[in-house]
């Protein structure tokens, strides 16, 4: 019952409740029903329900399960400073090392193994476009940025942008001072310029490693890789190879033979053939996995990039990959996400409608104000004549005591009954303790417009010999609006008096 309690007690923030307690949608529905909860709360609960159908986050990994993982590196820097050349050289150095030497293919990432056995995963889409795209999705898969600066050119516009991006994402930098084979190369100048942008290299008393390389000739690439591994050790990069798989799509394409394929970086768990994955509104039953040498891969743990075959549709790069327990669950999640997207669109449309309604209500209010100088009877006559059945708007004469007015809406089956009711209500004027404010009256069943008006004015709806469709009743319930429907006039009036007296301060 504590969900129900929480809903009634506005002191309790729904967000503070344990996610587990919100799991049962039927609970929430029941609570809404029982509490006659206000619209605002219904909205909050709806948000909770929305979270529940999607994939629930696994708890953070048990520190005992954590193992050291390889760093994931992005190469950034100004155009023409040698990013592509550096990636190519690093990749080639790897092919030589792996005697097998399959035909390398571009899958978006590749792995370099040092003679010491340490590994590095390089994302091979250079430049900050890829980096920014990942960041925008909130998935930071890069652990280290290698900033390439040409020694003959120095710090340029995109060098500075790269520094800023890395800083914002709190990703540490290693500087690769490139093109050191060139006679006009001046690595010292590069480091001084970098210091001007708060990138202080080791020989200038800072902490940032700077390696002098030639991407073209392949000079000092091993040193660069070693510097990367050293930094990774300092960062103590850890991953959990157990539990459900989590990862990110880094590339996505349709292959003639394989169909929709993605390259994923695994961030948690170990991906195997047969796993069921969801990414965005797509899902996959993993049929095959390949590395950058087009070699079949049996399993992929944290920091490993693999090409995945088995997607039903093509997810976009940057999308988060989450493993689910079954195909059925995957279908459910995808369906749910598509449904929610549809709902969001509808909600946008609903907002437009609501804005229009508000405008409409504002016109009503203005109308009331413009007639403020007239007596109620005159106003009513004026409005009634001008707009039969549309309503009467009677402003409170005592606005200084706003809480002692009771806004009401009167609906009746025929003109005569509405008129009769209004006449009786007029006599309540004599009782000046709490003023009745008839914000609207009319003939016919309770409509959505009545509910909306009641919501705008925080009013109560009284209906005489009229009915309200089930959907209208539900709407009223949802918005927390009182609907008082009667077939006997004195019963209606009794209830109205009761409502009135409940508005009055307790007599002392
Ligand atoms: P990116 O735009 O940063 O990817 O730069 P590229 O890798 O395309 O390199 C731009 C140009 O610089 C190419 O003509 C490369 O051959 C050349 N280049 C790259 N690295 C080196 C290097 O270490 N030494 C020399 N001399 N030229 C290089």
Features:
508 residues; alpha/beta; 6-stranded mixed beta sheet; 6-stranded antiparallel beta barrel; 14 helices; 39% helix; elongated; binds guanosine-5'-diphosphate
Structural description of this entry:
This protein is of the alpha/beta class and 508 residues long. It is 39% helix and 22% strand. The chain has 14 helices and 20 strands. It has helices at 2-8, 25-35, 39-53, 83-97, 128-136, 157-168, 187-195, 221-235, 327-370, 376-386, 415-427, 448-457, 470-479, 489-503, and strands at residues 67-68, 72-77, 109-113, 119-123, 144-150, 173-178, 210-212, 238-239, 246-255, 259-268, 271-272, 276-279, 282-290, 299-300, 305-311, 320-324, 405-412, 435-443, 460-464, 483-486. It has a six-stranded mixed beta sheet with strand order 3-4-2-5-6-7, with helices on both faces. Strand 3 (109-113) and strand 4 form a beta hairpin. The model is unreliable at 9-15, 17-23 and 387-402 (pLDDT under 50). The structure holds guanosine-5'-diphosphate. The site of guanosine-5'-diphosphate (GDP) has 16 residues, from helix 4.
Total count of strands:
20
Which structural class best describes the helix and strand composition?
Answer: alpha/beta
Main pleated-sheet profile: 6 strands, mixed
Query: Uncertain runs with pLDDT below 50, 5 residues or more?
Result: 9-15, 17-23, 387-402
First-residue to last-residue Cα separation: 36 Å
> Which ligands accompany this protein?
guanosine-5'-diphosphate
Strand order of the largest sheet: 3-4-2-5-6-7
Question: pLDDT average, as an integer?
Answer: 80
Beta strand %: 15-25%
Computed CA radius of gyration, to the nearest angstrom? 34 Å
